Amino acid sequence: MxxxxxxxxxxxxxxxxxxxxxxxxxxxxxxxxxxxSKLLKSEPHIPQHTYIQAMLLVLLFIKPKRVIILGLGxxxxxxxLRRFDTGIKVTAVELRAQVIELARRYFQLPIxxxxxxxxxxxxxxxxxxxxxxxxxxxxxxxxxxxVDENQLSETFxxxxxxxxxxxxxxxxxxxxxxxxxxxLLSHLQRHFSEVRACLTGGGNWVVFAGKTKREITSAxxxxxxxxxxxxxxxxxGRSLTRFALWE
Length: 247
Hints:
- Helix 5 (154-162) packs parallel to helix 6 (182-191).
- The protein is globular.
- It has helices at residues 50-55, 76-84, 97-106, 122-128, 154-162, 182-191, 218-232, 237-240, and strands at 5-12, 15-21, 25-29, 37-40, 66-70, 89-94, 115-119, 134-139, 142-143, 146-147, 164-175, 194-199, 204-210, 243-245.
- The chain has 247 residues and is α/β, with parallel strands linked by helices.
- The chain has an eight-stranded mixed sheet with strand order 7-6-5-8-11-13-12-14. A four-stranded antiparallel sheet has the order 1-2-3-4, covered by helices on one side.
- The mean pLDDT is 94.
């Protein structure tokens, strides 16, 4: 970001929290050269990171009524889901109280009865398992050093699967090196019927684990992606070219 200014700078037990701003973009950072969330202020519903764009490919397979988001950040997924369907009930779970405060203060986080923000460790939230089952769980738990390793564990995946409806999905945001993680794949295959994945241009490996198998042709996906792109107001085609079964 050029001509950026620091709107906020603080620290909690997990490290720094910084909000940067230029005329067009707002960024939430957890450290030097770190970009956790990025918001286009004039059009907050358009994800600025390719991994969020890729995570939304799950909407090709299911129209969710209830979703759980593990890891709030600046609320990029919430903005995009609101654009898709204002009726979706969203529960976002965030470990850091200051992240919740910053998302509300600086990142235009929507308010209303359809959005619930829970200040809790995502692992504990899943372990307790006392939430209504969701159509989709999005897991995007990152710190300044990368993905939370708990997100890759069988316990996490099993607990998430238990909170997902019979035709629902778990969407994991990982790094591209996790595409070689056969242990992670085996955990997913143990609890889900079908596992797809997408390599993003930003170096993320986004995983889509479905409770039921869905037969859909390449032409069918492209047609659906075109329609979904119009709903979301950005083009999904780039992510779709790297989207395939993970076997």
